[in-house]
Amino acid sequence: MRGWAGLIGVFVPFLVLLIASWGPIRGRALWMFSLFANLVSWLCFVLLASGFYLGSRPGLITSPFSMRASPWSVDLFLSWDYQSAILSLAVSSVVVCFHFLARNTLEGSRASVAGLCSFLGCLLGALGAGHLFLFSIFFAGSLVPRFVFAGVDGRDRTIEAIKETAFLGIVALFSLLAVVLIFSDPFKASLAEWFHLSGARYEVLPGAIGFSLLLFAAAISAGLFPFHGNARKNYEFETMERAVPLVLQSLFGFAILFRFSVGLFSAELKLFSPYLIGLFSVGFAYCAVGFLGSKRARDRIFWLQQVMNCLVAIGFFSLSRKGWHGAAVLLFFQALAVPFYLIVLSCHERRENLPMNRIAEFPLLSLSTAAAVLFTLFLPISVGFYGVLLVVWSLVAEPSWHLPFVIASLPIIALAGMGSMFFFMGERETQGVGSRDLTFEEVLAILPIGALLLLLGLLPRILMDPMGASVSALLKGLGISV
Amino acid sequence: MSLDQVLLMVYVAAPFFAAVVPWPSALRGGLVTFGSAASIIRVLALVLLSGTVISQLGRVSVSGTLVNGYPLQIILSLDAYRYGFLITAELCFLLAHWMSPPAATNGTLVRMLISLVQGFCALVLISDNSVVTGALQILSAASFFYLVRFSIGGDKEEVGISISRRIYALYFILGLTMMAWGILEFGHKDLLFSKVSGSSPGAVVWLAMLFFAVPIPPWSRWFAQAVENLPEGVTIAIAVFMAAVALKFANLFGLVYPELKGNQKLILYVLGLVGCAFSLGGLFAAKTRRKLLGSLPGFFLSLILVAVGVSKSSLVISAYFACLFLPALTALVLYASALKFNGPIQKAFVGMMIAMVIGLPGTPVYLIFSGIGARALDMGVAYSLMFLLMWFFYFGANVYSCRRIFMDRNQPEAGAVSDLEAGPVSFAGYGIFLMIFLVLVTQLAWRVL
Fold it and tell me: Which of B67, B150, B169 shows the shortest C-beta gap to A359?
């Protein structure tokens, strides 16, 4: 039953795409239908995730529908481990909340509703994809709706940025397809013969190339250092509203790493991981300094997301239980905390800056602002704190030259974080409403994510215990003792 | 769960409850607010726990697992050593609540945040897990940032921003360092504070943490600025927290590094003496009564380093008394700096305070100096001479203060920040009670520890 729930959860958002394309339903009715469909999807993922808490706690929940097609001898199916199920739930929650934040925008543009829901469907499908080919289909499917959703609001220079991002997405897709067609089953065996030169001293097409292509695709789609300039475009919109679902794009990249790199290139992963930890440690320090130098709230959250990305990558390439556990927790945390911050930032951009001496007159906005900032700074009231702790701890166990970069960057982030703590978020010229507290719809957009983050911060076991078991199982599959 | 554990849980949870529950407008000023009620509940809980902790010299502990698979556990334990400090600290926090007028800038918010730091203050002291203690310091850093930031406005806003930045940076970095140190020293076991054999790089990290946990002049001017500019309630909260953190680090000396090298202790001793000298220098140069009296907490903070620097046994009793005395002293001098000597209670208050500060036998100051003096005599002529000089200057500074406040024609201005006359209690009467209580606790601790 839970497999069905996952399957329905993935494909229900596409129903909204069909309805929006059809035409007669529009405006408030379309918004309500979209909200309903996304709530159904969310409920499906709640049911799916509950499977990891109740009963026999399965390691993998597989959908009943599989696509067995020639030349693939294996079943192409959707399957969820705990990590992907909980990430799907987080993504779904963000999109439901986004409906309340952007009701006016969505009611006024069918293209936006269609783009949002199909992007969500593709992301959910990619998170559950059990084979790289299936992942590539969903990834390819996400490019157009993403372009549409971002481009509807594009103005002047912004539209150029969106084009560039879409182009890079296509490049990542080609990399993925190359890996699918050369390095994964069933082509791997047959095509390897093509490149095998008799009498050659070296393998002509080593796995290192495939691993590099996969890594490249992951880095581009996650906006990962040193390809972070791509992700920067999400923060150049007229308003921050549209950036909320688009920042979830990074999950595509990390899904590639966590789900496929281990199975396809385990030897290369072990071989190159020390160098990659070094790269991302330097990247971590670079992003921390970028965060320190940021003057605007948009820049700060961008660099914070990059900091999280680098930490996830460091944890992943540490190939240790602590590192993977921390990285998985941070990835989930990122999927909630960054959109949460952006939702709060959107609310700020609709108002004048909060006057410090009258802060108590706007309790909801003040509280949500403080919460958003403190969560993203990895304070111990957020589950992100435990993620960072485990990632850094995994490095301390085997100190190397890159450890000082990580250690020195942590205080920099703490100090830079002070710039975000002064409640002055809305740097944009305000056209309108002056100072006022959150509206009911804004509360509906903020409260669920904020409450979930706080709950998980206070009771991290809820998330971290099953995630630890899932991570241990994955590492055992890789032949790494835990 | 035993009754003692329930009481400990009530003690821990009360201020957090007061901090997160919206305060009805009828309970925002006056004698009973959610914050002051939480303080009273905590005092009562501690009194009820005294049977186990003091009479039987036992320990009350509660623990909970944060994440399975790693030694990430919250372990809170209360013993006689911590008990004495905490009960005094609670009475100071009660005063802090009462000294924060609701009509001040963001008055209710400030009181709620005082409750929050009150909760963290006790947790930092009674937590036994190094990573959890570090995490609590980080949370305290953020709480203090907002507490300071919200409590000050108008002309002094820039000073407020500066202090809030510094206090946040200090405790955040201390918390981070504590976690890193904990992982390095105890990561292979259970992350609980325990004795480390031999000398290790961790000892140097601990020395640095102790030094930074005690904001002594001339490096930590922000504390002098805080005493001078922040509302009285907020300053008391900062002083109590600083004393708790300093006590935590001083306590770790006996627990983790009882065999610290002589030259490492000498560094602490010298730094402490420098801090004492600068504090007393600030007192002589002060223009206002608040600045003049406000130099004394800095002096006692520096004495913590001096006490650890000359210590021998695992229990640094002089540092303990200094930490015990510091919050109450800060509260007393803040009130004394704003006091008008127009009634018998006020006059009695001032008389008792002078007796306390000068260090009559039986008072905490007497015990602090006698402890340090005895060790200085043991350690040789140089230490004895330095101690004599320090004590002489301290005594001279007190005489100078009394002359400036009571005898000079051009008396220094008061320099109060809040309207203390609008307070819901007679602060002079409460101050007298606090001093008597402090002497009792000190005497009890002297015998029990």
Answer: B150
Partner B contacted by A451 (CB < 8 A): no
Q: Which positions ≥6 away from A132 have C-beta within 8 Å? A: A176, A179, A180, A184, A256, A260, A264
Decide if A309 contacts A390 (C-beta within 8 A). Answer: no
Of A118, A88, A134, the C-alpha closest to A14 is: A118
Best residue in B70, B130, B133, B184 to probe A by mutation, most A CBs within 10 Å?
B70
Q: Are strands B72-78 and A61-66 parallel, antiparallel or unpaired?
A: unpaired
- H or E element in which residue A162 lies: helix A157-183
H/E element holding B60?
Answer: strand B60-67
Q: Which residue would you say has higher pLDDT here, B131 or A265?
A: B131
A414: contact with B, CB 8 A cutoff: yes
Q: Convert the pLDDT of each residue in B193-204 to its tens digit.
A: 888 766 578 888
Name chain A contacts of B168, Cβ cutoff 8 Å. 418, 421
Q: Rounded distance, CA A346 to CA A309, Å? A: 22
Which of B90, B68, B67, B69 has the alpha carbon at shortest distance from B78?
A: B90
Look over chain B and give the mean of its residue pLDDT values, rounded to a whole number.
86
**Any idea what DSSP says for residue B363?**
S
Task: Name chain B contacts of A364, Cβ cutoff 8 Å.
Answer: none
Residue A299 gets which letter from DSSP?
H
C-beta atoms surrounding B275 within 10 Å: 27
Q: Is the dihedral of CA B274, B279, B280, B281 positive or negative?
A: positive
Residues of chain B in contact with residue A414, where contact means CB-CB under 8 angstroms, are 169, 172-173, 176
Which chain B residues touch A360 with a CB distance below 8 Å?
106, 108-109
Distances (CA, A) of B373 to B296, B301, B383, B387: 19, 17, 9, 6
Using an 8 Å CB-CB cutoff, list chain B residues near A418: 145, 165, 168-169
The string of DSSP codes covering B269-282 is HHHHHHHHHHHHHH
Q: What percent of chain A lies above the pLDDT cut of 90?
A: 25
Quick one: pLDDT at residue B120? Answer: 94
* Residue A193, number of CB atoms within 10 A of its CB: 7
ipTM of the complex: 0.87
> Could you say which residues from 100 to 139 on chain A have a Cβ atom under 8 Å away from some Cβ of chain B?
none
Residues A437-450: tens digit of each pLDDT: 888 889 999 999 99
Contact B176 A411 (CB under 8 A): yes
Q: Among A360, A385, A468, select the one facing B108 at the smallest CB separation.
A: A360
pTM of the entire predicted model: 0.90
**What is the predicted pLDDT for the residue at A161?**
63
Q: How far apart, in whole angstroms, are the C-alpha atoms of residue A161 and residue A151?
A: 10
B398 closest CA partner among B299, B327, B326: B299
Side chain identity, residue A422: F
Local structure of residue B22 (DSSP, 8 states): P
Question: A379 and B150 in contact by Cβ < 8 A?
Answer: no
- Evaluate whether A351 touches A426 at the Cβ level (below 8 Å): yes
Q: Which two tokens stand for residue A83?
A: 């990590």
Instruction: Evaluate if residue A94 carries a pLDDT over 90.
Output: yes
